[in-house]
Amino acid sequence: MTRTSTPAVLYICAARSKDAPGLAVQRAEQEGRDFADNRGLRIVEEITDLFGEPEPQRRAGWMRVRELAERGEVEVVITRWPNALSPVSELRYPELDHLGRYGAQLFFSWAPLSAMVGGGSAR
Question: In what order do the strands lie in the sheet with 6-15?
Fold first, then answer.
């Protein structure tokens, strides 16, 4: 990757246990890295949260994602699919708006979603 590539954070919210990450975490990591490589994105940080809390702002990892966007350290957030942000669709929109206020976009790395939404953008 070149230094001029777009900075991104890989956000994974699939783990059921921090001690034993499963296949879902491994797939999310690999898909996210491949997605970034194929689009010239430079992953500056990988953040993992335990899956289960529907409110994104109650997760330490997601709060770190927000912080990176607020400080202008990332322009792209990569996650596997919408449920990683929240299984409750109404709780996703305020987070998308928040990222957008700081010039960051959310992209989905799961192939069927990224193909359907023109590269995976949630906007």
Answer: 41-50, 6-15, 76-79, 105-108
- Could you give the CA distance from residue 99 to residue 66 in angstroms, rounded to a whole number? 7
Cα distance between residue 100 and residue 70, in whole Å: 10
DSSP alpha helices (H): ranges in the chain?
A: 23-38, 60-70, 82-85, 89-101, 111-116
- DSSP three-state, residue 119: coil
| pLDDT tens figures, 24-83 | 888 899 999 999 999 999 999 999 998 889 999 999 999 999 999 999 999 999 999 899
Q: Which CATH architecture has domain 6-116?
A: 3-Layer(aba) Sandwich (3.40)
CA atoms of 42 and 97, how far apart (whole Å):
23
pLDDT given at position 123? 47
Q: How many residues does the chain have?
A: 123
The ranges assigned to domains in the chain are 6-116
What is this structure's pTM?
Answer: 0.86
